[in-house]
Amino acid sequence: MSDLTTEFAAQAAIPRAKPLDSYKPFWAKRFGTAKFLPTSRAEMDALGWDSCDIVIVTGDAYVDHPSFGMAVIGRVLENQGFRVGIIAQPDWHSAEPFKALGKPNLFWGVAAGNMDSMINRYTADRKIRSDDAYTPGGQGGARPDRCSAVYAQRCREAFKDVPIVMGGIEASLRRIAHYDYWSDKVRRAILMDAKADLLVYGNAERAIVEVAHRLAAREPIASITDVRGTAFVRKRHDPTAQGWFELDSTEVDQPGRIDQHINPYLTTGQLAADNGATCAMEEAGAFNPTPSDGSKPIRIVPNPALAAKTPAKPLPERSGKIVMPPRDRTVIRLPSYEQVKDDPVLYAHANRVLHLETNPGNARALVQRHGEGPGAQDVWINPPPIPLTTSEMDMVFDLPYARAPHPKYGDAVIPAWDMIRFSVNIMRGCFGGCTFCSITEHEGRIIQSRSEASVLKEIEDIRDKVKGFTGVISDLGGPTANMYRLGCSSKAIEAACRKPSCVYPTICSNLHTDHGPLVRMYRRARALPGIKKILIGSGLRYDLAVRAPEYVKELVTHHVGGYLKIAPEHTEQGPLSKMMKPGIGTYDRFKQMFEQFSEEAGKKQYLIPYFIAAHPGTTDEDMMNLAVWLKRNGFKADQVQTFYPSPMATATAMYHSGLNTLKGISRQPGRGESVDIVKGEKRRRLHKAFLRYHDPNNWPLLRDALKAMGRADLIGNGQHHLIPTYQPATDGGYDSARRKNSTKAGTKTSVVTVGRASGQRVTGQRHAEIGDTQRDPRDLPRGSGGQPRRGQILTQHTGLPPRQTGAGRAGSGASRPASKSARPVKKGR
Fold it and tell me: What is the β-pairing status of strands 533-534 and 563-569?
């Protein structure tokens, strides 16, 4: 660390926050707890409510489960004594549906849901998806594009004088001016479009509880400007901003500080006196500035004519060290919206500054001007929220969730709920810092873990209360499977650190990487009565796992349901350095351990790597080398992940600016680093084609590309060639894996609704009875006994043994394999 960081670390620690359970409950606590938060006036009447204190509007179907944001916030506020109602997926074409629960007494809570509405609706190729995993029946189109802003506008129209507080990942990732991939331009901060009063970003429990109690105490929302983890709009030169030290960061390549010039007419003794010291030689008389011939030195005297004027203020003393203003009263001014929308260099700079100010221990407030002239406004972003303690995490997850969709949905299946209903979230946050992922920007990089007792209690609740449980827990994880209770070994260093990742380029020497608590929890969890198996479905950080052989052995021996997914993302150092991912050698070491422990356990298990195409910093040669690696190792990817520029991600800033924002930003040639950006349909299709080199429809494109690259030697019919010279009879078209796995609008989807209308599970044996139009696309061609047909190619997504997820209905006689056609719950890398 630098001297400045070391000095700061010696005195720093993450500030303490007011505990969630220390607030005096609101008077409505007397009404007790609702089985489900009400969604209609009839449900409010049944609870004895005449009104709601808070109404939450969400773009997801209402599932009362701790994996769904609206349920967590609703239950946390209910626990504080507030009456909370839910309006889920309202018709946004008018304000009437937003009046269903009446006028909120305190505020509206607005969120798009667990996913960004644009990512939920559009593929990485900007094509409309036909399904939505967070909607009953899996049907798409139940929410508008950019629905946080649309919902906020309708709430304002419904009851114009009620404060609007917006949150969720969509608003969180749009808290400053951001590049919008779908319109290919930089858009304003969402507060400017939504006209909401306050934005709560990140995990919102701490901020929303404080805001609710202050509004309940009749404090105007315009005066609530000091809550961490919030953003709001201020007018320029607002008197409420007095007392803040502003650091100007609106330009790049600006000169540093200018030191005070030395007065050449001062004697040595005078110079020493100005610096608070003395000259020993002059005091001893060893140096006499007066010559022996009687001549005198020139003296500079004040001008009497200027003596009556106000004397200039003396310059501050210089100690040689940079003296910074207090961080808790410092705000950094980012380039304005008008600057970044037309200047990719300044956009990259603003993004870099924002990511440097994400540690709650040392982050400073940020401000960005929107507009010009007298009507200009500032979007003000307070430092991130203080992470929850273990006891606070336990309190949040131990609240009385119904752990089911609201009864109004009847038998309709909500795919996202179906996927996670037997899973347990054990932690939050991720210190991996992958540039394409937004988990760190939303949840932070400090891990917040639950206690072992709280996790085991939730497993028992699933066993005892959740309908259809077969004894299999489908996941025990979070954003990343194996960061439970990991973190910095020094709280002071953690509070001072400004690195974007704790594991890149190497694992930090200060990082505590003991997997022992996680291993012990695995063992206690699977020893619970009625628990047959505990699976790990979250993405594994394998560079951490290789440091804990005991953990890998425990995982492979007891917690892998046939295959384990990990994400090396690429094999070449160029793109990996832009992703902040470890080299492929680390994957090879983990693969060796995985195969060794699988063999020792007597199990045939598969390691499934995932890769990304078209990521910033990826050249055509990089993708060609990855394709060669895939063929050499026998992988044939059926699904391809293409880089998706989500708002505020570091990789998105690279995509828009063409600059590496992990390094300093400069306009001067040779100082900044340019990044190869994969744009345009043809080149993005080429990169995807390299990942699917085995698809005959891609061979004509790949042949042309290999010839243009001077690698025609990879074209041939031998085992060492990448693609053959012959071309089978195909339609020559291209159909993305995501499009193939989607269904046409209005048709029933695979796991979601096929046969569910009658409450029955559709199996492969019933396809002939139902018809091909309702065939589950995941039922792969197999021979007798459920084994792959002779000659069928086993790829990373087909031909594998079905994974035991515990998702089978009671009495169904079988469990379903995990869906690959949709991945609604974002997992860590």
Answer: unpaired
Q: Is the dihedral of CA 637, 639, 645, 647 positive or negative?
A: negative
pTM score of the predicted model: 0.82
Q: Does residue 789 register a pLDDT over 80?
A: no
Q: How confident is the model at residue 216 (pLDDT cuts 50, 70, 90)?
A: very high
Give the integer Cα–Cα distance in Å for 3 and 5.
5
Instruction: Give the Cα separation of 753 and 472 in Å (integer).
Output: 23
Tell me how far CA of residue 485 lies from CA of 79, 194, 516, 518, in angstroms: 26, 38, 9, 8
CB burial of 122-149 (b: ≥16 within 10 Å; e: otherwise) equals bebeeeebbbbbbbbbbbbebbbebbbb
- Say which DSSP state 314 is in: P
Counting beta carbons within 10 angstroms of the beta carbon of residue 5, is it exposed (0 to 12), middle (13 to 18) or buried (19 or more)?
A: middle
pLDDT (tens digit per residue) in 51-73: 999 999 999 999 999 999 999 99
Locate tokens 């040392």: which residue? Answer: 362
Count CA atoms closer than 13 A to 21's CA, side-chain side: 10
Backbone angles phi, psi at 649, to 5 degrees: -65, 150
Distance CA 429, CA 427 (A): 7
- How many helices (H) and strands (E) the chain has is answered by 29, 25
In whole angstroms, what is the distance from residue 186 CA to residue 258 CA?
35
**Is residue 783 pLDDT above 50, yes or no?**
no
**Cα-based torsion angle of the residue sequence 467, 468, 472, 473 in order, rounded to the nearest 10 degrees:** -40
- Calpha distance 59→143 (Å, rounded): 6
Residue percentage of the chain with pLDDT more than 70: 80
The span from the CA of 362 to the CA of 297, in Å, is 53
| Contact indicator for 588, 595 with CB cutoff of 8 Å | no
Is the Cβ–Cβ distance between 164 and 325 less than 8 Å? no
Rounded CA-CA distance 694/640 in Å is 13
